[in-house]
Amino acid sequence: MNLPDNFVFSQGNLQDYVDCKRRFQLRYIERRSWPAIKAEPALVHEEWMQLGARFHRMVEQALSGVPAEQINVSPEDEKLSLWWRNYLSLHGKLTGIENAPEEELSFFPELTLSAGVGGYRLLAKYDLIVITSAGQLVIYDWKTSVKRPRREWLADRLQTRVYPYLLVRAGQTLTGGLPVPPEKVSMVYWFAGYPDDPERFPYNQPAFERDSSYLEGLINEISGLEPTQFTLTDVLQQCTYCQYRSLCDRGTRAGEFTGEEAEGTLAELSDLLFDLDTIPEIGYD
User: Which fold has domain 8-278?
Assistant: First the structure.
């Protein structure tokens, strides 16, 4: 057993493990600090990260009832202003909700859910969950990447599996205790720079069963590894944007910033900001 009993899994650290077992060990078990720059140029990378974080906070304010006109955006922030205008144009056009009147929708922004998987806790923080009067549950995730990711890339991310799975497992807190059928769940990635081209992933019972088996197996695998079994990835491209690349003798120069890596970093930061005391408890199986 290499993990503490109170270790919490998320799509972020599971993605790190799938990308590179050694990165998972260094970051989450050894908690090794290594100040390598993730992407060049560093200033552009940092500024884009800050813009993405500000956009998420602005959307959270709007969904929490703050009038849009009271959410200030400096005219100098051209990119953020564009994202904000694109978000405001989304009003009444939520993909996957089939033109339901707003009064028939229930909004749950910045919600965290958790459930027991493989003897550990798995949790996710959602940008937005919308429930219709017909019982449809739509997960929204805001993306601020420079380039619009390919559907295949998104489909392969752990987030696309963990978020719908956990909503089925723990969504009863939103439905008055009623079960959440997988067929009622879908996930939408909405891109602030590409507002008219979201990506939607419907869910179903076979996908839920596959994810349940896969995630439990993945967590059991991680918890059963010995320290020497956290091996380096064979995909050297994974090292390009990794802060530990010089520690692992996988190069010293950071990859060029394109924006996709910013999304991954933002997700990692979001995972670290969870307030565990506010997460509703879900019993372990």
Answer: Lambda Exonuclease; Chain A (3.90.320)
